[in-house]
Amino acid sequence: MTAPVIQKPLVRARKVHKAFDKLEVLKGIDLDIMPGEVVVVLGPSGSGKSTFLRCINHLEAINGGYIEVDGEQIGYRLRNDRLEKLSDNAIARQRRKIGMVFQQFNLYPHMTVLQNIIEAPVGVHGESRSDAVANAKRLLERVGLSEKADAYPRQLSGGQQQRVAIARALAIKPKLMLFDEPTSALDPELVGEVLATMRDLSKQGLTMIVVTHEISFAREAADRVVFMDGGKIVEMGKPEDVIGNPQHPRTQAFLSRFL
Ligand code: ADP
Ligand code: MG
């Protein structure tokens, strides 16, 4: 008999607290995410969704608890029983495992699509230009934009720009992808193509945390749905449970807006 493979979570968040001065924004977040899992985070505006993603990526330092990604604590290390802040270099190395896509695509306007995608691998991570270009071309194929390699961002629709931003985030070969309302800035007719790209990625075994108000995407693509309110996880589970049969009054109230 072969021994069962015990998989470790790729992300472990424990008692995560974050405050901006006196404003407590995250009030003890506990969440484990397994490799390959797609987790959709729902919740009203101001509930702390973006802050949580930003803490995972160490764009914000947390005030309590810890976050581990791929077995390493984000931003800190334990030394002689004391928590020590990591060096900028060490943090950059951790960030390399995490790709992030924002509401605003923030492509470099003076660079072509291809240049945007190879910028971090070549400029920051020292990958050879030819490897980075080959990888960028594969990624453009994956997001359905092979023919746009030499276009400039202004020549693309918002949906195409966001798909380039996804390819750019994937170019560092992250283990974890974070999406923060990636379709919220798009005209309604452009939302579908970006969600379709994300749905493809979700089927390819990528570990994803997606903050979105697209309930249908959550229902179809999520392995798990997390509902946040007031800096806490109020409810979490399979989409058919959390969306189809929410237990908490605040989840019910939030979802009733989408019916
Ligand atoms: P969500 O993404 O769920 O809408 P956010 O994480 O953006 O929520 O924000 C949660 C709360 O934290 C809000 O009250 C917001 O105003 C506050 N906040 C977010 N970032 C900062 C910051 N850099 N400084 C001060 N307050 C912030
Ligand atoms: Mg937000």
From TrEMBL:
It comes from the Bacteria. SMART domains: AAA (SM00382). It is a peripheral membrane protein. Residues 11-255 form the ABC transporter domain. GO terms for molecular function: ABC-type amino acid transporter activity; ATP binding; ATP hydrolysis activity. InterPro entries: AAA+_ATPase, ABC_ATPase_HisP-typ, ABC_transporter-like_ATP-bd, ABC_transporter-like_CS, MetN_ABC_transporter-like, P-loop_NTPase. The keyword Mitochondrion does not apply. GO terms for cellular component: plasma membrane. Keywords: Amino-acid transport, ATP-binding, Cell membrane, Membrane, Nucleotide-binding, Transport. It is found in: Cell membrane. It holds the Pfam family ABC_tran. Belongs to the ABC transporter superfamily. This is ATP-binding protein.
